[in-house]
Amino acid sequence: MFNLKILAFFSSLLSMLFISNHASADNIGQAVPWGLNLREPFSGLMAEMVVFHNGLLWLITIISLFVLALLVIIVVKFNAKANPKPSKTTHNTFLEIAWTAIPVLILVIMAVPSFKLLYKTDVIPEAHMTIKAIGHQWYWSYEYPDHGNFTYDAWMVQDAEEIEGQDRPFTRLLTTDTQVVIPVGKVIRVQMTSTDVLHSWTIPSLGVKKDAVPGRLNEIWLQADREGIFYGQCSELCGTNHGYMPIEVRAVSEEKFLSWVEQAREEYAKVGEDIDLANNK
Questions:
Q1: What 8-state DSSP symbol labels residue 40?
Q2: Which of 69, 100, 206, 279 is the most buried (most CB within 10 A)?
Q3: pLDDT band (50, 70, 90) for residue 152
Q4: DSSP H helices in the chain
Q5: Residue 171 belongs to what domain range?
Q6: How many domains does the chain have?
Q7: Rg of the chain (C-alpha set)
Q8: Nearest Cα to 249, choosing from 268, 222, 211?
């Protein structure tokens, strides 16, 4: 049985070899040119996914080399020239038990950490706050019910001039006019739904991906372990502009987050606010 600590060690080694660090200190959650392997993890959940993924790569490699070795032995030892009088043996009890039991054992080795990880992603711990993401064709809307219930839309930015003067980088096809701002190190519950078709709210660097389904409320959780910008995109084919509804999450300190909330309450309209129609002519 494979030792999970050994798998974790080789997983870390594989990550150091293949994960690039070309992104800047702030602009960290994006793909990089010639990048290989999964996106660099910036949450504990994603780090566990990377370890599990890389461990499976080693396991698959070992299995593949073993099967290759068997094929080479068969070709060399049991070809017609080397073995002109082949055996007529048709059954081997030990081999038949072995090639049934060993794959079952391998599946169990894979299943145990897999189920643990699935359970951890599905069960939401006690959350610091909740954000609601609503998918539209083709943009996202966000609500902050725990901080005044304000809401705003996030559209893809076409060029750098649209965010000129703002303290953030422009990343083609990933930057949005407004960001999802979260406090670093806090458990954030994200609820999602859709107003039209299936969408998917995905942030690879934070290890989150969940479908936004019309008429249904799904939820996930995330926790950024450092400040920075993390990018994602809708990962469900949702129509013509599917590739143009990115997600931009910015993790900041608790103080900066509270300061942003105060500004957002003033800047963005409130959800569910009573309107006196008699005074609106």
A1: P
A2: 206
A3: very high
A4: 4-18, 44-77, 93-122, 254-267
A5: 129-267
A6: 2
A7: 25
A8: 222
For residue 14, pLDDT beyond 60: no
Least reliable range by pLDDT among 7-11, 208-212, 225-229: 7-11
3-state secondary structure of 257: helix
206 secondary structure, DSSP code: G
Residue 191 included in any domain: yes
Q: At what angle do helices 44-77 and 4-18 cross, to 10 degrees?
A: 100
Q: Is the pLDDT of residue 67 over 90?
A: yes
Give counts: helices (H), strands (E), the chain. Answer: 4, 10
- Cβ neighbours for 237, distance < 8 A, ≥ 6 positions apart: 198
Sorting pLDDT into bands at 50, 70 and 90, what band is 267?
confident
Point out the least confidently predicted range of 64-73, 80-89, 137-146: 80-89
* CA atoms of 24 and 43, how far apart (whole Å): 17
Determine contact, residues 83/77, Cβ cutoff 8 Å. Answer: yes
